[in-house]
Amino acid sequence: MIKNYPSDEFCETTVLGICLLDSRKASEILVTLTEDDFYYGNLKNRCIFNAMKTLYDAGNAIDITTVTNQLINTKELDKVGGVDYLVSLTKLVTSFQNIEFYVQNLKDQTLLRNLLQEIDKIEQDYETKQIKDINAFVAECESRINKITEGRRVSDFVSAKEAARIVGEKIQSSHGVEGSITGISTGFERLDGLINGLNKNELIILAARPAVGKSALALNIAYNAAAKTNKPVALFSLEMANDMILKRLFAAQSSISYDSIQKGILSTNERLKLKEVENDLASVPLYIDDNSGSSIDDIVLKSRKLKESKGDLALIVVDYLGLINDPKNTFKDNEQAKIAYFSRRLKMLAGELQCPVLSLSQLNRQTDARENKRPQLSDLRSSGAIEQDADKVLFIYRPAYYKNQGISIGENKKGQGENKEVLPKPSNEPKVQDDKKADLVEVIVAKNRSGRTGTTELFFMPAFGRFFTPEREHGFMNQNMPGSNYSDKFKDTEDD
Question: Taking 60 as the threshold, does the pLDDT of residue 414 lie above it?
């Protein structure tokens, strides 16, 4: 038995009648609607629309006579009820003023039909197919439904006159203060000043070579965003387990080394301090998913559910882009296509949930092959797709990472390849991490779709996995102070 799905036959006939009476309106309608917007149960209306579309595509006029001739040529005139039915269509038209409503109503009916039909197909698949992985099946179902709902309510052009008035009113009513930002604060004042915070709808890429500190910086930003806004922050960690993430947060917020926490070598005072930090962490709306097998559909689905249950999200963090799972091996060995698809989905997620998405990314090995190790956009893996989708691209450059390995970075301040410094080869003796040592780090804003690009500086204390904003600028070549206490040289903006 054929199932009846939603339709509006009266609206269909009214739209066809308007096309027969007004050639200008017909051109607007025929480029907006398709055959699918006329319910298959109303076969007569479908045939007439197709006849009109054929005439329009050929550049011919549309009226009762031309449509009649076209239906005669296709042997469908009797099928639609003859000329009498065409005449009856024109008599149904009482006004041309609501044509936009009629057209949109037909589009909405099509959307609802397609959605219900897909739900029926999903139910049939559930009844007839073997489901080996329930989570994968649910993710696939959601993806199929999303493909349909993404087409709803396509916006039309907005005139410059209308847009200028709306934006002008916003500008006049805004009263900002010096140093204020429009987005979510990263917790680092200088970085916020350069990128204007993390804004809604934005995809922000944070990239660096392995072990430079990008996960630590992302974790710092995630915690700061949750603490400062008191809104949920979703952290998808595809590399580190929940236990490791929490221990890093304990270290960063207590200034007790991660190594000491990991080994349990703690004094009484340190244990008391960690108990205080535990209470602080418990009060912050940070939500962590450490499923290393998460697919892009999982990330989208869980983010939506978090918003539904906890309210508007402040930030979504994905650590990192290259580790997102492709469970069906859709892209096989095409890494570039896979990354392009994932970055596009994250960009769409930012727009859908109206919050920024911060995604980490790796850099190509060619970065290490150059004398100047400072990253650039071409160093991004699958750089074309990421660079296109990202609203902001941030790089981390930590010279000490290379110096500690005895690798020549061959540059002066800001990468001028002069007076190349050649360091001795590293000793085979294991190095003991100095808890008080801080490395000066460049955060390079290489792309900023809505603002400035440039470079700002942070201090990074590897032992704690914690970043700080320097009180004043420091030259990278003047930081050779291993073991020095930097407490008089940096300002902890996270405690502001």
Answer: no
